[in-house]
Amino acid sequence: MIKKNEKLKIAVVIPCYKVKDHILDVISNIGDEVDTIYAVDDKCPESSGQFILDNCTDSRVQVLFNNVNKGVGGAVIHGYQQGLVDGIDIFVKVDGDGQMDPALIKYFVKPILRGAADYTKGNRFHEIEGLKLMPKIRLFGNAVLSFMTKFSSGYYRTFDPTNGYTAISSVALKKLPLEKISNRYFFESDMLFRLNIVDAKVLDIPMDAIYGDEVSNLNIKQILFPFLKGNIKNLSKRIFYNYFLRGFSIASVELVLGIILFIFGLIYGSVAWYDSIVSDSPATSGTVMLAALPVILGVQFLLSFIQADIENQPTISLTRLLRDDIESD
């Protein structure tokens, strides 16, 4: 709950899996603006949790343990759940491999503190010069995944969906079904989908990634098709929830008409084209028009729907709405 005239409590959640060589440096670089640090040992084969307990003297650190490996999402959710119990107001998620600069934490929490956003997310694509440091396979893979996630989540102004540097307010977090969110590499993309469903406002925070001797556990080739499947599933759910179950608008009509006309024109045109080949006679101008016109109209309706969907992004944060309610009491 956002507290009136009280300092908000900020926590950092660090999923720990094969980060033993970097985790102490990450923790030591976290500034005084942070009240609590949750280091979540995700059944790490290096026993990173015990390593932190034995070697870290920072009193803010709480080490949490997963009994089984749940993936990055499962580790972060464990930290979120503990933080909600402890009354944390803002959660920042930072990886333990040293690729994320803890000095940026203040920039991630500032929009949430001002009530300008419910969720902030790092964007490594904002500065062109910074992209030169990113391995080419990651650059291509992240670009593809970003375009997928734009459509599935409805946040068309966000980019870099696999970027795990994020911050979220407890107001938005409490509205999410944490038990349903993907536990593994689809976690960040699934979070965006869930946030859209509850009308949370999301902002990108420009940042540079740090690439050193760490080994990434993310394999673009292995996750590309699972991401595609997950994004198609989330897109279908979001469209159904936002345009048919919870509301109905002209955009809903455009979507239905666009799909029907496009499919009709495509099928009719394909059948007419096949018949003209079999009969060895050219299709009449009427047949061509009857095939082409529905396709053209269908595409126009679908483009109009996409434009409406782009404009339908949340513009007022849930955090600000709650804060305004508290201040008016």
- Which runs of at least 5 residues are low in confidence (pLDDT < 50)? none
Q: What is the oligomer described by this structure?
A: single chain
How many helices? The count is: 11
- What is the makeup of the main sheet? 7 strands, mixed
The strand line-up of the biggest sheet is 3-2-1-4-6-5-7
Describe this entry's structure for a reader:
- Helix 7 runs parallel beside helix 8 and helix 9 (250-279) runs antiparallel to helix 10 (285-311).
- Helix content is 50%, strand content 11%.
- The chain is of the alpha/beta class and 329 residues long.
- It folds into 2 domains: 10-234, Spore Coat Polysaccharide Biosynthesis Protein SpsA, Chain A (Alpha-Beta Complex), CATH 3.90.550; 248-311.
- 38% of the residues are buried.
- The model has no long low-confidence stretch (mean pLDDT 89).
- The protein is elongated, with a radius of gyration of 24 Å.
- A 7-stranded mixed sheet has the order 3-2-1-4-6-5-7, with helices on both faces.
- It has helices spanning 23-28, 48-55, 71-86, 105-113, 136-153, 170-173, 187-197, 220-245, 250-279, 285-311, 318-328, and strands at residues 10-16, 36-41, 61-65, 90-93, 119-123, 166-169, 202-206.
